[in-house]
Amino acid sequence: MTRFAAVLQRVEARLTVPQPARSRILHEMAADLEDLYAAYRARGLADADALRRAEAALGASPEAVEALVQVHRPAWERLLARFSDSGRHRLERGLLTGLTLVGVLVGAGALARQGILDDASPFVWPVLVLAAGTLAVSGGVFFRLVVKQDHRPGTVRAGLLPLLVLAAATVLMGGIGWVWEMSRIADDVSRLATVPADILVPRLRRASEVFALGLTSGLGGVLAWFHLRRRALAVERAEASQPVPATHSNRTGGVP
Amino acid sequence: MHSTLDTQSFAKSINELLVLSALREGPMHGYQIALELEERSAGMFNLQHGTLYPILHRLEREGLIAGEWSAGVGRRRKEYVLTRTGRARLGEGTGDVREVFARLLHVLGDGNGLRPGLATG
Fold first, then answer.
1. Would the N or C end of chain B have less CB density within 10 A of its end CB?
2. Using an 8 Å Cβ cutoff, are A134 and A221 in contact?
3. What is the per-residue pLDDT for B59?
């Protein structure tokens, strides 16, 4: 704990800046205070005087801290500054829902153009539903952690486990679809001496499509999970490495 | 045709120019910038650190200065350097200040025409 813990704690309580910026600011202040203190001591000031002079030089008035908060305010907050809290929430929810729908429609359109949805394996639909869920959850977590930088305690990792479960379920569903399609092909092969190509080829195509779809969507979800988890860990590490403990009430990341 | 002077933004830009000018001498930590300005101005420009950080961080965000963390003995410290854009801004800003003060002095130089109450403040 730094000798300037009291003054830094006062700054921290008002510093409603998202991590890791908040921790960096406090580290910068702590280092400057220590250097100032050392400089005053070198000039021959007594310990208590050097401490007092260094603290006075910091001059972290509420207005100065507020100016710092404004500089580090997330771009999203600045953009929506004119909206009320409820209006902002409605807008955010609408935007996220809209973007997810657009993503699903674009994806479905691409699949339809490729003819994947014509005579598709019945497992394609649950895979698509799970993929849409993965997209929605990863979009929501990305928005909260990266765009909005809302790092309230207990919510930093929220959504990460569901994202991983959804991504894994998507891969699994694709795999089950593949096994199911292949078992149907195996049944046909065992039942008939020779399976005509016009039956065999579409079945193989269906099997590979459902597998590829599940694998691609699931891997996309896993990649998103890795990226977002890294971001969440960076926030937690920054919080833990602050020179003074985080004040519970200000860990909202930009929103007082 | 010159626009009207916005005194608030002028004062803000003076602070920014002071920081940029301090960094012209070389890389510095926040507290060094404040001490340097105080020393160079013989105590006239005494920027408190609390005021300095928002300026530094805004200049950093605008790419006029760059902050670099150095892992010193015991603790990490942040050092600022002037970027090429910052150097250019300093040049422009110095020209603007010179012009503003030239006009101010021109106006003040016409002090005979001022009413006594105004002249003495």
1. N
2. yes
3. 94
Give A-chain residues touching B69 at CB under 8 angstroms.
24
Residue A135's nearest CA partner among A223, A47, A59 is A223
Q: Is A30 on the interface with B (CB under 8 A)?
A: yes
Distance between B44 CA and the closest CA of chain A, angstroms: 15
A201 and A91 inside one domain: yes
Task: Say how many residues make up chain A.
Answer: 256
* Any B CB within 8 A of A68 CB: yes
pLDDT along chain A (256 residues), means of 10: 82 87 90 87 89 82 86 82 81 87 86 79 91 92 88 84 96 94 87 78 88 94 95 88 72 42
| DSSP structure string for A75-114 | HHHHHTTTS-HHHHHHHHHHHHHHHHHHHHHHHHHHHHHT
Mutate to test the interface with A, among B12, B57, B58, B65 (most CBs of A within 10 A): B57
User: Which DSSP symbol is given to A188?
Assistant: H
Kindly indicate the confidence band of residue B89, based on its pLDDT and cuts at 50, 70 and 90: very high
B58: chain A residues, CB-CB within 8 Å: 71
Q: Which domains does chain B have, with CATH numbers?
A: 8-111 (1.10.10.10)
- How far apart CA A216 and CA A247 sit, in angstroms, is 42
Which residue range forms the structural domain that includes residue A29? Answer: 5-73
A51 and A147 housed in the same domain: no
How far apart are the CA of A171 and the nearest CA of chain B, in angstroms? 42
Rounded to two decimals, the ipTM of the complex is: 0.75
pTM > 0.95: yes or no = no
Cβ of A32 within 8 Å of Cβ of B31? The answer is yes
